Task: inverse folding
């Protein structure tokens, strides 16, 4: 039996996304023997010490604290894989020193603010010969895996079209019309965390994972909420507002390399409705809880009949844990790499060019 992969985790504090989702998925009992958290790194000495104490207690062994420059945890001889969970504008500057130290790495999507940065990260990874793992975990949903199985088995015949309708409800407060203070940076498109980049990126990866790549793509968009109201630290509405011109509603269509037609819409009130139609039948996925397939399992129907999917009751931790397991087991194609992130960014870049130029983009 192979030894557990020794993980150093950048951005793992005692609270926040990494603490509430990524770390629990990595440390869940089903992954014992596959990973060993040995070090953490945060921006300050105090937060790093608190995090190290928390996870030393949780894991039952000493976890080393680092803070500041990412090269420090990457130089730890006990670290084999560095996980990076920081804000997107910091991705490139944090992960490049990790790669230069020839450490394999996990990095959250979008793996850079834009296509250029993601390509730089990918080129560095290839140059140093390190393995990569990117947080595009929708493909690890047991429902998505079941759909892939159904399509491959010919259950619906040749796929002719797919329609995806998704919505990020305003109540999440990630994007306008109401946002939390820590998400103000998302209002600057240059930071790479628009709703299209984040939610759209996860959706597009799942779509192309199941149905193959696009050959052409066309997009239209509008800005329904030109102003964002900022909440205070307690979640109460303030008088502070910020103007934004970032489109928040999109209609995207294109032809897949298979010849199938794909349509994606981010409007309406349906959180998630995804239909895949073939010559012999249809698949439908629905969710009333979230548009993020990487965090929640939609309900699956085949020709109108509900399909029970093993493991679908386990939501965020289960899906993220499946991605960690796929990487540890070396199941290439079942976890996303930095090359998948580049491909995803090329598609998002084509959507932006279509919006700017008002025409169909040939990929």
Result:
């Amino acid at each position: 039996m192979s030894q557990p992969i020794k993980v150093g985790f950048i951005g793992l504090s005692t609270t926040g996304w990494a603490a509430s989702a990524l770390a629990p998925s990595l440390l869940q009992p089903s992954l014992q023997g596959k990973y060993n958290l040995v070090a953490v790194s945060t921006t300050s000495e105090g937060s790093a010490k608190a995090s190290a104490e928390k996870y030393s207690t949780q894991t039952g062994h000493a976890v080393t604290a680092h803070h500041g420059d990412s090269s420090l945890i990457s130089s730890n001889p006990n670290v084999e894989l560095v996980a990076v969970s920081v804000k997107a504008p910091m991705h490139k500057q944090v992960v490049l020193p990790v790669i230069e130290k020839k450490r394999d790495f996990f990095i959250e999507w979008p793996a850079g603010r834009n296509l250029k940065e993601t390509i730089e990260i990918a080129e560095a990874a290839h140059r140093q010969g390190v393995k990569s793992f990117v947080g595009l975990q929708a493909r690890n949903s047991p429902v998505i895996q079941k759909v892939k199985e159904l399509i491959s088995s010919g259950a619906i015949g040749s796929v002719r079209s797919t329609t995806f309708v998704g919505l990020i409800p305003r109540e999440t407060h990630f994007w306008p019309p109401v946002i939390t203070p820590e998400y103000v940076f998302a209002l600057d498109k240059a930071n790479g965390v628009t709703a299209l980049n984040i939610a759209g990126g996860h959706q597009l990866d799942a779509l192309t994972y199941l149905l193959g790549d696009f050959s052409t793509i066309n997009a239209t968009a509008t800005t329904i909420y030109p102003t964002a109201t900022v909440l205070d630290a307690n979640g109460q509405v303030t008088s502070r507002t910020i103007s934004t011109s970032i489109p928040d509603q999109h209609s995207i269509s294109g032809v897949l390399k298979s010849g199938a037609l794909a349509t994606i819409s981010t409007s309406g009130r349906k959180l998630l409705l995804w239909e895949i139609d073939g010559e012999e039948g249809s698949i439908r996925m629905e969710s009333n809880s979230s548009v993020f397939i990487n965090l929640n399992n939609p309900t699956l129907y085949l020709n109108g009949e509900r399909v029970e999917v093993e493991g679908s009751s386990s939501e965020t931790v289960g899906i993220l844990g499946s991605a960690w397991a796929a990487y540890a087991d070396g199941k290439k194609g079942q976890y996303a790499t930095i090359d998948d992130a580049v491909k995803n960014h090329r598609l998002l870049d084509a959507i932006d060019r279509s919006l700017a130029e008002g025409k169909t983009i040939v990929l």
Observations:
- The chain has nine helices and 18 strands.
- The radius of gyration is 20 Å.
- The mean pLDDT is 96.
- The first strand starts at residue 5 and ends at 10.
